[in-house]
Amino acid sequence: METRHLSNVQVSVIITCYNHGKFLKQAVQSALEQNIEELEILVVDDGSLDDTSEVAKLLPVRYIYQYNQGLSAARNTGIRHSRGKFLAFLDADDYFKPNSLHTNLDIIQNNPQIAFVAGSHEKVYEETGEVFVLNDTVNENHFYYMLQGNFIGMHAAVLYNKWVFDEYKFDVNLKMCEDYDLYLKITRKYEIIHHEKIIAAYRIHLSNMSSNYSKMLKAALSVLNRNKPLIKSVEEKKAFKEGVNFWKKYYTQEMINQMRLGKIKLDYYGLFMLIDQSPKILRRSIEAKFRSNLSVD
């Protein structure tokens, strides 16, 4: 089922999906409940092997299939097919909070010079039902603070002016942290607005790509290094170093948390980072080898 043709689409919601058909209906429903009349919803199926296509074809969306190319390529496909003046990206396993897009839409319409507006989000842990709100805001020097870490955190909390994508696209060579890479490039050149209102919910579950903390750490540091040429001042150089340290500490702690729960499987990069950042904790874990269920690929 496809939405009616809209000649003057205000907002395009691009939902990317890879083997998350079981979550797709809720993601689409959360977009439909935004009560934005001139809204289109595009589902980009990145070569799913589950029932994504069957689910999507029963929903009021524009369904686009492509062979598996990764998240960046799927988002770029959505951009090419979108008709909206403003673009929002939603992963199929996440969802918008009720009437939240109006907050971003009002802000960006009243500030047409900004590249995007970003709100806050909440983390919802599917296994335990716990919910954590992340709503610290950055009101100035956005590139500087982005060097220190991705203060936006969730891509669905962002609403873009589509003209941004005349200049930038998601880098298909990045399998992770592609949004962080884009934020750095955009905030170096353009103004944005960041606010504390909750826009979306980020669902934490076992098949999250971002739960592979070793790979996420490697990707975050890679993105920082590839954007190092954008740095212009001594203060920004300092922020860059702080960002490197932040990502190492953040993902090392996440690996430690998983280790304590007996849920982690490390690659050699993750093992190296644990040795570098937390040698005492790693040693204790190795000594308790069978109890910790730690394995190395």
From TrEMBL:
The record's section on InterPro entries has: Glyco_trans_2-like, Nucleotide-diphossugar_trans
The answer, when asked if Ion transport is one of the entry's keywords, is: no
Q: Which UniProt keywords apply?
A: Glycosyltransferase, Transferase
Q: What is its EC number?
A: 2.4.-.-
Source species, domain of life = Bacteria
Domain Glycosyltransferase 2-like as annotated: residue spans: 12-129
Aminoacyl-tRNA synthetase in keyword set: no
GO MF annotation list:
hexosyltransferase activity
Enzyme group, top EC level? transferase
> What is the name of the protein in this document?
Glycosyltransferase
Q: Which organism is it from?
A: Litoribacter ruber
